[in-house]
Amino acid sequence: MAQKVEEFQHKVRSGIAPDFWEFMGVEGFLMFISYWKELGGKPPGLQGVHRYFCSSYFNELPVARIREQLGADLLTGNQPILTGDMMDVELLSVAIPVSHFVLTDKRMSERIKRRGINKDWGTEVYSMADIDGLFGKLEALR
Description:
Number of strands: 2
Strand order of the largest sheet: 1-2
Largest sheet: 2 strands, parallel
Number of domains: 2
Radius of gyration: 20 Å
Distance between the termini: 49 Å
Helix content: 55-70%
Structural class: mainly alpha
């Protein structure tokens, strides 16, 4: 990604207007560079942001850690990657660390349990196949 950003920035400095898709490919990272500068991150610029994203500090943050665990399981597993899988990974990586209960599809539920992510964060994970268990837990809270 750092190489794409460097190529984009070089193009802009050279007076060549990037197309829309080139911009969309790096805009998130450019935003992080801006935040990094505002926060006084060291080292400054692209090098500092790149170093931060490669650090153990960033990779142990709940959202990043769960996203990488689920993404790795998708890429190395035997099941085909479905169109909604990546969005599920994004949403679950935010929900799991802050939720007592999560309801997802059967494949993702099995993936989370196989990786032990539910145990790491103390989250009970359910699918439609075992939704009665979730209803039982919720009913007990009344």
